[in-house]
């Protein structure tokens, strides 16, 4: 799966690779320290935040809870 911003894809792949190594070699063996991939996660997170701003994605709209509400039954409006 690609990142929200195409310029973040390489950073995402690097973080995902680090996470997979950490999970299998550290976490599953009882070491729950997240420091191994923390620097990569920080850089990737900043890239994603910038991509969200550039694409004008409204995080409040994304995080809004609509399940089991009347709003869930509404048809989506066009965002063009």
TrEMBL record:
Presence of keyword Coiled coil: yes
Catalytic activity as recorded in UniProt: a 1,2-diacyl-sn-glycero-3-phosphate(in) = a 1,2-diacyl-sn-glycero-3-phosphate(out)
Keyword Disulfide bond (UniProt): yes
Coiled coil stretches, renumbered: 45-72
GO biological process: phospholipid translocation
MF (Gene Ontology): phosphatidic acid transfer activity
Keyword annotations of the record: Coiled coil, Disulfide bond
CC terms in the record's Gene Ontology section: cytosol; mitochondrial intermembrane space; nucleus
PANTHER family named in the record: TP53-REGULATED INHIBITOR OF APOPTOSIS 1
Family: Belongs to the TRIAP1/MDM35 family.
Stated name of the protein: TP53-regulated inhibitor of apoptosis 1-like
Organism: Megalurothrips usitatus (bean blossom thrips)
């Amino acid at each position: 799966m690609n990142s929200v911003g195409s310029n973040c894809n390489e950073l995402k792949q690097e973080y995902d690779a680090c996470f997979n190594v950490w999970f299998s070699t550290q976490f599953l063996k009882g070491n729950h320290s997240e420091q191994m991939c923390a620097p990569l996660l920080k850089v990737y997170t900043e890239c994603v935040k910038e991509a969200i701003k550039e694409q004008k994605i409204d995080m409040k709209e994304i995080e809004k809870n609509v399940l089991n509400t009347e709003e869930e039954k509404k048809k989506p409006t066009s965002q063009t």
